[in-house]
Structures are given as C-alpha cells and as structure tokens.
Design a protein that fits this description.
This protein is mainly alpha-helical and about 325 residues long. Helices cover about 80% and strands about 0% of the residues. The chain has 13 helices and no strands.
C-alpha cells in the first residue's frame, strides 16, 4: 500500500508538471515519469488486491483489468476526435485541452494519494516464503506474460496503420478499432470476474490463445474492412481472457514471488514488444506488405497456449477456495 501511494503521488506530480511544462522536452520527461509511476503502481496493485481479498485472486484481478480496459475504450476515440479537431483549428486549442486533462488527472491522483493515507488498511497475512527461491521459478510466468503483452501491444501498435492503408474503403477512423478491442477486453474480463474461482481454469488459460490467434490470422487475411475489424475485435474478446487467468494462477501458486514475477514479466514484455515492432516494420518496409508482416502476431498467442499447456500439466493443480471449503467440511 505504501508503494502504491508513493507511485500514485509521483504520477500525480508528473501529470501536473506535464500540464505546466513550458517546452515539449519537459512535457515528454514529465509524461515518462507519469508512465513509470503507473507501471510500478500497477505491479503494487496486482500484489495488494489478492492479499486483501483472499480466495479469489483471478476474479479480483479480472475486475481490475476490466476497469483498466475502460481507459483503452475512451483514449483512442477521444484522441482521434482531438486530432481531427486540431487539424481544423489554427490556434493552440488542442494543446490547451491536453494540458487541462493532465492537470485534472494530476490533481485527482494527488487527492487520492492523500485520502489513502488517511484510511487505515489492515495488513494481510504474509505469504509463506518457499524453501528455495531460484530464478527458474519466474522463467515460465515471465515468458507467458511477455508472449501475451508483447504480442498484443505490437499488434495494437500497427493496427491503425494496417487498417488505414491496407483497405480500399475505410468505414471509420482506424484508431477507433483499438477502442473496439478495448471494449472487447472489458466485456470478456468482466464476465471472467463473475465466473467462480477455479472453474475451467486450465481451459481459460490454454484455449483463448489458440482460438484468438486463429481469429486474428483470419482478420489479417480477410480483405473486407468491416469483416476484418469484426474478427480482430472478436480475437481480442477471446485472448483477452488469458492474462487475468495467468495472474490469478501466479497469485495462488507463488504469492510470495508475485511482485517479482510481474516485474520480470513486464521487462520481458517491453523487450518483446520493441523487438516485434521493429521486426514488423522492417519486414513491411522490405516486402511492401504490412499484412504479411503482422502474421507473426497470431503465432505469439498460439505459442502462449502451447507453453501454458505444458506449464499447467507439469505443476500440480491448486484447489479453489470453494473446493478447499468442501474438503474441510
């Protein structure tokens, strides 16, 4: 909780600094600090919530990620409208709106940091430390996290370009496609937060990567803009389920190492995202075909399913809280 409050405070200060930055370089530095604060706060939240709400780590983390997806629904849509409006205007109106948004968000985060400091949060029971802590314990969770996050981010990075340049008829701004994918994430993870803990857990971890990867491959191959967008949003609805399930398994199987596992997975995610983005751009530039270059993304989700299937089969299944209650009775 202290780490979460500190990161939210840092993010709030950086957001206010971004609103008041006199030069673009200062603005970019403040935004970098804002993003860094959010990244560490997200790790702290992922560790904090399962420790405060015992017995349902996958459900509570799915609800958390569903809420985060709401931001992804609004941001591309609002950004597209702001850019279209700024093109039609000659004055600095768009920058004024952006600075106002940073100022409001920063003040809200600082107020939240202050209110959290006045509220007493009971300490959770510490998770038992394992007898041995080896780096191999974090290897598979980190790779799985990177396969999902890096592949998804790389696809989202190139999706507006793909839908803006690869079709003869574009029905709506390509940035809105990302809003549709974020909405699919929100709907799927909201349903996942309702499903009882432990129900079809291995299927929800292994199945979405294969099904979602096939749908994404069809979206890249299909030549109709509307059908391709529909398949891409459908793929997001499916493979968006796998990440909360993975985080729930980590919280249940290795609670003492969860923070470190998420941090290492985040580092691997950014590395894979950068590598895939460069690879896709290079292949598209050499071949002149972005559609073919993006076919590496469905393979990432399929690889997630294959590795998750091996990982879950090699480890003993952890009974859910409901099963533990029935056994005690």
């Amino acid at each position: 909780m202290r780490l979460f409050r500190a990161c939210i405070g840092v993010a709030g200060i950086c957001s206010v600094m971004a609103a008041l930055a006199p030069r673009p370089a200062y603005l970019m530095a403040a935004v970098a600090g804002l993003c860094g604060g959010f990244v560490v706060a997200d790790i702290a939240t992922s560790v904090l919530l399962p420790s405060l709400i015992q017995g349902s780590p996958r459900r509570i983390l799915a609800a958390k990620y569903a809420f985060i997806s709401l931001i992804g629904v609004v941001t591309p849509f609002a950004g597209g409208l702001l850019m279209s409006w700024s093109v039609r205007q000659d004055g600095p109106g768009a920058m004024s709106i952006l600075r106002s948004a940073y100022l409001i968000a920063g003040l809200a985060m600082l107020a939240g940091c202050f209110l959290l400091g006045r509220r007493h949060v009971p300490a959770a029971d510490p998770a038992p430390a394992p007898l041995k802590q080896r780096w191999t314990v974090y290897l598979v969770p980190a790779v799985l996290t990177a396969l999902h996050g890096g592949t998804d981010s790389a696809m989202a990075r190139w999706a507006p370009t793909f839908y803006g340049e690869s079709f003869a008829r574009v029905l709506f701004p390509p940035a809105w496609v990302l809003s549709g994918c974020a909405l699919a994430y929100f709907l799927g993870r909201t349903v996942l937060s309702i499903i009882p803990e432990g129900r079809a857990e291995r299927f929800l971890l292994v199945g979405p990567g294969v099904v979602g990867g096939c749908l994404l491959m069809a979206a890249l191959v299909y030549r109709s803009f509307g059908a391709s967008v529909g398949l891409y949003v459908g793929a997001s609805l499916v493979y968006g389920l796998e990440f909360p399930v993975l985080m729930g398994l980590i919280a249940r199987r290795m609670p003492a190492q969860m923070g470190r596992a998420i941090a290492l997975g985040g580092l691997a995610t950014y590395g894979l995202y950068g590598g895939l983005s460069v690879l896709i751009g290079t292949v598209a530039q050499v071949t002149g075909d972005l559609r073919t270059a993006l076919l590496v993304c469905p393979l990432g989700f399929v690889s997630f399913s294959v590795l998750a299937a091996v990982w879950t089969r090699s480890r003993p299944r952890v009974p859910s809280s409901a099963e533990q209650t029935m056994d005690s009775l």
